[in-house]
Amino acid sequence: MTDLDFELTIGHDEGGTLRVVVRGELDLATAGRLEAAVADPTAQRVRVDLRGLTFMDSTGVRTLLQATEDARRAGRDLRFHMPVDGEARVVLTETGIAALLPLEGAEDGS
Amino acid sequence: MTDFSARFSSNLETPTLARRQLDRWLPAWLGEGDRGALRLLVSELVTNCVRHAKVSADAPVELAMRVAGRTIRIEVHDGGTGFTPAGHPKPRGADGGYGLYLVERLASRWGVDTRAGTRVWFELDVAQAAG
Fold first, then answer.
1. Which of the residues A59, A66, A78 would you substitute to probe the B interface, choosing the one with the greatest number of B C-beta atoms within 10 Å?
2. Of A31, A52, A62, B69, which residue is the least packed, with the fewest Cβ within 10 Å?
């Protein structure tokens, strides 16, 4: 087993929101863990913080899009905090998918 | 001209390992933007091998890099039947297609050779070396 550079933490706040925070590299080796974490059917409101990612490729992109599609179909409120710069941002801007993902707005303070 | 190559068994961690190998090869003078593009493209090509090709432990994924002046050439080879991209790839949404689209967007030149296994190569003309 490779010592992967990836960390995923899950928290539930008082309001029932599922908060998923990922750090490190999101790729074929690690995307399954994010997919499983956000798929929790008991969470109506999910916030995924991607700002700690140091790398993401199209496998990560696919995972974000699939999670978005699944949440929309199930009527769940899923939003992402995107990385603002660095290498993980490159794949988002080059694919144009940042525009397709529900982003966490500044207005709700989280 | 500098040549490097490495072989990996094919599994979910192969893209990670290939990026780490690349990090050890890339010249110190390379800028962060070019470095990031190369890491991303290597990750995409190796992921394609693992996902689509009929790779077994007997037919490992091979990664090779050549630096010639300002051009960095990368080749990723597997023994499988692989895939043959038709024309210029476009993103297809959640079911995939972004990998080769990124290669098309970021690489200076790229191509596929299917004569023996599948060999996908690309070249990136990088920024002038500092100093």
1. A59
2. B69
CB-based contact, A39 to chain B, within 8 Å: no
Element (H, E) at A25: strand A17-26
Residues 6+ apart with CB under 8 A from A80: A47, A48, A49, A50, A64, A101, A102, A103, A104
The structure tokens 């700002």 sit at: A51
* Average pLDDT rounded to a whole number, residues A66-90: 91
Q: Which residues of chain A neighbour B13 with C-beta distances below 8 Å?
A: 1-2, 4, 28-29
pTM, entire model: 0.88
Residues 6+ positions from B123 with CB-CB distance below 8 Å: B71, B72, B73, B74, B107, B108, B109, B110
- pLDDT mean over A79-106: 83
Residues of chain A with Cβ-Cβ distance to B23 below 8 Å are none
Mutating which of B21, B39, B40 best tests the A interface, going by the most A Cβ atoms within 10 A?
B40
- The ipTM estimated for the assembled molecules is 0.89
Residue A107 pLDDT: 42
DSSP B130: P
State yes or no: pLDDT of B10 exceeds 60. Answer: yes
